[in-house]
Specification:
Radius of gyration: 23 Å
CATH class of the largest domain: Mainly Beta
Largest sheet: 4 strands, antiparallel
Distance between the termini: 35 Å
Shape: globular
Number of domains: 2
């Protein structure tokens, strides 16, 4: 499976690649609009990579797919015989990919992402002749494209490896460790780095996200995780507890601070974090997964392989996902995340509040008079904090809060 996506209306899109040995393959697109009961499909193409003696590269593959809902989507195809890309659009689901769009460049196209029906981004191979990074912006649904500039030149051996979209923000990771991102729908772009050589990123909002990966060439190298609270400008190391799988990590839709991770062999299984990636609880270690997606209504789907041959789709039991209390006053502190002030339950005595950052350092303290119901975090920088409330003769109260 090349990718999974669940759109805002609950439609599931799957880009499926089936190898058959000797370089042969089939490429399919599947969708489901009934929570996985049925899966209409479209055969994109069949062919051969051409790696074996006597085999000629041929056929078309769906290289990338991005959908807005059950009907509207864009697909990037790649022809192994001509080495040419094509961008197709549908308004009627997978069977309607019959409308080719203007190509932004003759170079291979890797990803296409749309923020709405008209505005989107295409990421392509860099053009050394013009100095283009291969980032193209459209405001008319892909009929026309404009190249966007990024500070500095892109090396000839650099290309985009993965990307992430939240709202009108987009982040793209290159094979040389750069993070290229926009917060204005692709109008302007910034270059940063989380300080990991090979990594992917996942964001749960325009400001809150994780980068995860390894330093190459070091056997048994530990997992490196970084967190950002400013949309990718700066990154802070995170000490992770538990087995975080790293084939793919996604934010759980509608569950602030919750991430779901899946892994392929030898890191098979899945794990859930409910504290912004600090601690991970394994859900299972039986299946190998290469793609995962979450969506509205507690939907979570992943590919699953348990016999090294048969690959199926697996739906996560929604009961393992956290639920919000119906009455906010029953939570230790709300709203959470917060722009600055958190409401807490009053106590008949004075208390001390201590704020710890993600590595356990004291970031701030407050003295709360008897009956106080407000915690003021406006003096703290946006980040994740563990709050400890102590008072005379009372057990300490601990909870986590995200300062946005």
């Amino acid at each position: 499976m090349r990718s999974l996506q669940i759109t805002a209306d609950g439609a599931i899109w799957a880009n499926c690649f089936r190898p058959h040995g000797m370089g042969d393959f089939d490429s399919y697109v599947y969708t489901s609009t009934d929570a996985g009961q049925t899966w209409p499909q479209r055969l994109v193409g069949r062919g051969n990579f051409g790696p074996m003696p006597g085999r000629v590269a041929s056929g078309t593959i769906a290289f990338d797919i991005w959908a807005l809902d059950a009907g509207n989507a864009w697909m990037v195809t790649y022809d192994y015989a001509t080495t040419q890309s094509q961008v197709l659009k549908t308004t009627t689901g997978p069977l309607g990919f019959d409308t080719p769009l203007a190509l932004p460049t003759p170079k291979p196209i890797w990803y296409v992402r749309f923020f709405n029906a008209t505005e989107g981004i295409a990421l392509a191979a860099p053009d050394m002749a013009t100095g283009s990074w291969g980032i193209y912006h459209t405001t008319d649904g892909g009929s026309t494209w404009a190249a966007k500039t990024v500070a500095g030149a892109m090396p000839a051996n650099e290309g985009f490896m993965s990307c992430e979209v939240v709202g009108r923000s987009m982040w793209a990771v290159t094979n040389l460790g750069k993070l290229i991102f926009t917060n204005d729908g692709g109008q302007t772009w910034t270059v940063a780095s989380p300080g990991i050589a090979k990594y992917r990123v996942v964001f749960r909002s325009a400001t809150q996200g994780l980068a995860y990966g390894y330093e190459p060439g070091a056997p048994g190298a530990p997992l490196l995780v970084r967190r950002t609270t400013d949309g990718g400008q700066t990154w802070t190391p995170v000490a992770v507890t538990g087995l975080m799988r790293t084939t793919q990590v996604v934010a759980v839709v509608g569950k602030p601070g919750t991430y779901l991770s899946v892994g392929d062999y030898p890191q098979s299984g899945s794990a859930l974090s409910k504290d912004d990636g600090l601690t991970w609880s394994s859900l299972e270690s039986t299946y190998s997964h290469d793609a995962v997606a979450t969506g509205p209504g507690n939907q979570a789907w992943a590919t699953a392989t348990d016999d090294a041959v048969t690959k199926t789709m697996m739906q996560l039991n929604a009961s393992v996902l956290p639920t919000r209390a119906s009455n906010p006053a029953t939570r230790p502190g709300y709203p959470n995340p917060t722009p600055g002030v958190v409401t807490i339950e009053a106590a008949p005595y004075a208390r001390q509040a201590i704020f710890f950052d993600v590595v356990g350092r004291v970031a701030g303290q407050q003295l709360l008079p008897t009956g106080a119901t407000r915690l003021d975090l406006t003096v703290l920088v946006p980040a994740i904090y563990r709050v400890q409330l102590t008072g005379p003769g009372a057990a300490p109260v601990h909870f986590q809060v995200v300062r946005e």
